[in-house]
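Please decode residue identities from the backbone states below.
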């Protein structure tokens, strides 16, 4: 099993600012989604696909987030349990591919390695 994560240092005082451990809510909500929509230093929006840069490259444009939590804290965004976000399962779950890990509950998530 592989769990993906992203760590972003504080823009203020990374060595002394707190570390926020971020897990998005809901079943199947990737924490990287929260990082790029809600709290990270850059965000994506509908406008990200209406820029000149997007028209040239097909890559959505990131915008600076004035209200980023990284202004005062380090953030570790974790996608868990697999297969949320870029996380995957090895061995594969009952449906076969690495995107299927079977049913998750608190006991299975706590025991995952």
């Amino acid at each position: 099993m592989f769990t993906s994560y992203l760590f972003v240092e504080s823009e203020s005082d990374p060595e002394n600012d707190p570390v926020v451990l971020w897990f998005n809510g809901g079943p199947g909500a990737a924490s990287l989604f929260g990082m790029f929509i809600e709290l990270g230093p850059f965000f994506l929006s509908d406008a990200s696909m209406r820029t000149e840069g997007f028209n040239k490259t097909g890559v959505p444009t990131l915008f600076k987030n004035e209200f980023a939590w990284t202004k005062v804290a380090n953030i570790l965004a974790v996608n868990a349990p697999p297969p949320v976000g870029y996380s995957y399962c090895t061995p594969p779950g009952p449906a076969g591919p690495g995107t299927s890990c079977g049913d998750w509950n608190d006991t299975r998530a706590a025991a995952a390695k």
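Observation: The chain has one domain: 5-111.
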